[in-house]
Amino acid sequence: MIPFNKQNLFGSELKYIQDAYDQGKLSGDGKYTKLCSTFMEEKFGGERVLLTPSCTHALELAALLIDIKPGDEVIMPSYTFVSTANAFVLRGARPIFCDIRPDTLNIDEEKIEDLITERTKAIVPVHYAGVACDMDRIMKIAHNHDLYVIEDAAQGVNAGYKGKYLGTIGHFGCYSFHETKNYSMGEGGALIINDKRFVERAEIIREKGTDRSKFYRGEIDKYSWVDIGSSYLPSEISAAVLWAQFEHLDEIQERRMRIWNAYYSGLYPYEGANKIRLPIIPNSAEHNAHLFYVLLNSEPARDKMLSLLKEKGIFAVFHYLPLHTSPFGLSLGYKEGDLPITEEISRKLIRLPIYTSIHISEVNKIIDYFANY
Ligand SMILES: *Cc1c(COP(=O)(O)O)cnc(C)c1O
């Protein structure tokens, strides 16, 4: 049996969890949270990086920071995870779904401007599969219309766009360290703040609306309630796990890249035979091998392939059901046919197993099923 995903663990996680225990401080913002956030600031950039309990929470924190209010509109792809939309819907915003590009499956930057109204507050590009959106174009549109850009880089940790790390280009970037992502703390995430103006308030909102972060740094002698807020700190036990993963940052990526390249070169002949379409990586994007997808020619062909693989004990999976045709999306007034590329891609896509410990012989076995299909 080949699972779809396996959490990679190095053993050092336990050592760091034990150390966190020995420190006697398991609540947030201790030694390991500091190690992880400093590491990200130095490696990826950004004015400040705040560790959060999930990428969902990082997105929520961003929505709070830009003061999303009922009636505001936020432009995003429909081909994404629910949290991209929910973080803003929670604040009363209306998600405005934009179709995707057939090549990268990312938001189609040429369709964004038509969706901008007086109520538009932000654009949320999602870097699908860790492959960068056209950030130059998106940042230009945002600048011209005075909009915020929040990168949903949940899948894009340690991936780049023209030499910059994903998550460091918009006003904010959001990372996920969920078990299904490249680097995992079980459940976790981070908010990358690229605009200095938001750093102080982000710390306050994350600390229940208090200035406790300043207090801990010794900048003030007591802390109090100063703003709205919530609790967006992960425990030190989770941060200790992430620190072990960060010590192997490049190794994890190299191993995933080897698997990704094995799939790509092994499946390449069948693309020529017009059976499948492989991922397209633009020159501007340095991807991180987060996932390997294949597009089949039709929905029945996709479903046939999925059940064939399942029969053989291989857990390949489809991906997003478009948000605009979900029950909630329909309740917002969207309907089938509104975003044709999103709908078509969603029906034809399969994701193949990819994790650091999958063996190349297992990858080759999966490739052989495509040969015979
Ligand atoms: C995984 C994912 C999220 C949510 O991440 P959590 O850490 O589980 O909250 C959000 N957006 C995208 C695009 C994702 O892939």
From TrEMBL:
Similarity comment text for this entry: Belongs to the DegT/DnrJ/EryC1 family.
Q: What's the EC number here?
A: 2.6.1.59
Class in the EC hierarchy, top level? transferase
Write out the GO biological process terms: polysaccharide biosynthetic process
How is this protein named in the record? Answer: dTDP-4-amino-4,6-dideoxygalactose transaminase
- The superkingdom listed in its UniProt entry is Archaea
Keyword vocabulary terms for this entry: Aminotransferase, Pyridoxal phosphate, Transferase
Q: Sorted alphabetically, which InterPro entries does this protein's record hold?
A: DegT/StrS_aminotransferase, PyrdxlP-dep_Trfase, PyrdxlP-dep_Trfase_major, WecE-like
One MF annotation (Gene Ontology) recorded for this entry: dTDP-4-amino-4,6-dideoxygalactose transaminase activity
Recorded source organism is Methanospirillum purgamenti
Q: Which Gene3D superfamilies match?
A: Type I PLP-dependent aspartate aminotransferase-like (Major domain)
User: Which Pfam family, giving just one, matches this sequence?
Assistant: DegT_DnrJ_EryC1
PANTHER family from the xrefs?
DTDP-4-AMINO-4,6-DIDEOXYGALACTOSE TRANSAMINASE, TRANSAMINASE
